[in-house]
């Protein structure tokens, strides 16, 4: 049994005062809603509602259960909203490793623009021409001009770098 779904159905039945209205609201039949509430009552071993052809009424146990269900479902909704906010707004520390010249000539302006787009992300730039162990140094993104030594890492081609040599006679 989907206990959470049954709890939501039970709460909506009490709030709307009708199995039919709840069924319409949840895009399902009155019978399906009635079965969910009956299964919930059977699962917890308590009669929650007294019903007749004209009205629904909460039993004393049903009143207590309803109040706790409303609180629980509210907490679940808040937790889900909070989780969505965390995903919706990127935040945290982004550790980037890149060669010194590339950091100065290219990344500086790009990171400034990135920071204005994502103010909740702080950048920790590790500018070094030395080999850096990405795992042990906690680097999230590394920009390199050579092939990967560690095949467990994921590489993306960013651009072609054209080198030219100039000399005078």
Automatic annotation (TrEMBL):
<protein>
    <submittedName>
        <fullName>LysR family transcriptional regulator</fullName>
    </submittedName>
</protein>
<dbReference type="InterPro" id="IPR058163">
    <property type="entry name" value="LysR-type_TF_proteobact-type"/>
</dbReference>
<dbReference type="GO" id="GO:0043565">
    <property type="term" value="F:sequence-specific DNA binding"/>
</dbReference>
<keyword id="KW-0805">Transcription regulation</keyword>
<comment type="similarity">
    <text>Belongs to the LysR transcriptional regulatory family.</text>
</comment>
<dbReference type="Pfam" id="PF03466">
    <property type="entry name" value="LysR_substrate"/>
</dbReference>
<dbReference type="InterPro" id="IPR036390">
    <property type="entry name" value="WH_DNA-bd_sf"/>
</dbReference>
<dbReference type="InterPro" id="IPR036388">
    <property type="entry name" value="WH-like_DNA-bd_sf"/>
</dbReference>
<keyword id="KW-0804">Transcription</keyword>
<dbReference type="GO" id="GO:0003700">
    <property type="term" value="F:DNA-binding transcription factor activity"/>
</dbReference>
<dbReference type="InterPro" id="IPR005119">
    <property type="entry name" value="LysR_subst-bd"/>
</dbReference>
<keyword id="KW-0238">DNA-binding</keyword>
<dbReference type="Pfam" id="PF00126">
    <property type="entry name" value="HTH_1"/>
</dbReference>
<feature type="domain" description="HTH lysR-type">
    <location>
        <begin position="1"/>
        <end position="59"/>
    </location>
</feature>
<dbReference type="InterPro" id="IPR000847">
    <property type="entry name" value="LysR_HTH_N"/>
</dbReference>
<dbReference type="GO" id="GO:0006351">
    <property type="term" value="P:DNA-templated transcription"/>
</dbReference>
């Amino acid at each position: 049994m989907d206990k959470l779904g049954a709890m939501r159905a039970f709460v909506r039945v009490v709030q709307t005062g009708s199995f039919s209205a709840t069924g319409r609201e949840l895009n399902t039949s009155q019978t399906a809603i009635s079965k969910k509430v009956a299964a919930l009552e059977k699962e917890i071993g308590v009669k929650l509602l007294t019903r007749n052809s004209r009205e629904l009424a909460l039993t004393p146990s049903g009143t207590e259960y309803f109040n706790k269900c409303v609180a629980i479902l509210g907490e679940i909704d808040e937790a889900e909203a909070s989780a969505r906010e965390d995903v919706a707004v990127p935040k945290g520390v982004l550790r980037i490793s890149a060669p010194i010249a590339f950091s100065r000539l290219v990344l500086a302006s790009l990171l400034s623009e990135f920071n204005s787009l994502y103010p909740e992300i702080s950048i920790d730039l590790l500018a070094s021409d030395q080999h850096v162990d990405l795992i042990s140094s906690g680097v999230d993104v590394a920009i390199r001009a050579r092939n990967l030594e560690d095949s467990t890492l994921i590489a993306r081609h960013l651009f072609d770098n054209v080198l030219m040599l100039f000399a005078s006679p």
